[in-house]
Amino acid sequence: MNLYELTVRDREDNPVSLETYRGKVLLIVNTATGCGFTPQYTGLQKLYDAYRDRGFEILDFPCNQFANQAPGSIEEIQQFCTLNYGTTFPRFAKIDVNGAAESPLYAFLKSEKGGLLGDAIKWNFTKFLIDRDGRVVKRFAPMDAPESLTGEIEALL
Hints:
- By secondary structure, the protein is of the alpha+beta class.
- Helix content is 25%, strand content 18%.
- The protein has a single domain (3-156), classed as Glutaredoxin.
- Strands 4-3-5-6 form a four-stranded mixed β-sheet, covered by helices on one side. A two-stranded antiparallel sheet has the order 1-2.
- A hairpin with a 5-residue loop joins β5 (127-130) and β6 (136-140).
């Protein structure tokens, strides 16, 4: 199994093959609109603005598994992020990142890069950096600010 064999759902619930992103550096993030880390959307957008023209994409997967911090429909989440943080990077359908209904994408990411306390995602805004060949390079904790990732992103670009 590799990243490009996986399919996710877009905001309209259409299937999207991750093959679409082959050759790009990716930052995959599980997000929430009511989390203490929600202001990281600002830093994520700055990264996207700085690097998207060089082959960088951020893939945003809202997740409501942690203290119900991503309530509402995907449309409401999209509106919140656009109005409050001006985000323009791709946002996908809400997913589970742990448990019985876990997204196959997150099962793959966790199998490639477990965390310090095991494989489970511990909170929203866990970030996975993927190189242009689809390899999971690094996993970042929620408290790792997007701005702190610039050197590692630039090295892959």
